[in-house]
From TrEMBL:
Keywords: WD repeat. The keyword Transmembrane helix does not apply. WD repeats lie at residues 1-32, 43-75. PANTHER family: TRANSCRIPTION INITIATION FACTOR TFIID, TRANSCRIPTION INITIATION FACTOR TFIID SUBUNIT 5. This is WD40 repeat domain-containing protein. The keyword Transferase does not apply.
Length: 112
């Protein structure tokens, strides 16, 4: 599987076994759905390398730990529109086309 730009530091299957979460030194937290061939979704970004992760036993949340000395709790969105809205709420400037490709976001829409 390809997607991360740097070394992958952690991998964990969701409790139901359908989703694989990965964290990397590229600062991202990604979700993969290997059974349906979807591209990985970036559900979060830390300020520095991400080194560890763990799922809540019910699969509703994912905890990640980073070199930036933070632990963050993510609620993985399975709805792509909700995931894109979350990503947009965390970006304070328009992304370049290369950045969009790096985070696997769809091409910008007019007025977006």
């Amino acid at each position: 599987m390809t997607g991360h730009q740097e070394r992958v530091q952690g991998v964990a299957w969701s409790p139901d076994g359908r989703t694989l979460a990965t964290v990397s030194w590229d600062r991202t937290v990604r979700l993969w759905a290997p059974d349906d061939g979807r591209e990985p979704a970036v559900v979060g970004v830390h300020d520095d390398q991400v080194n560890g992760l763990a799922w809540h036993p019910d699969g509703s949340r994912l905890a990640t730990a980073s070199r930036d000395r933070s632990v963050r709790i993510w609620e993985p969105a399975t709805d792509m529109d909700a995931l894109l809205e979350l990503a947009r709420s965390r970006v304070f400037r328009r992304l370049t086309d290369d950045e969009r490709r790096g985070f696997l976001l769809p091409a910008a829409r007019a007025g977006a």
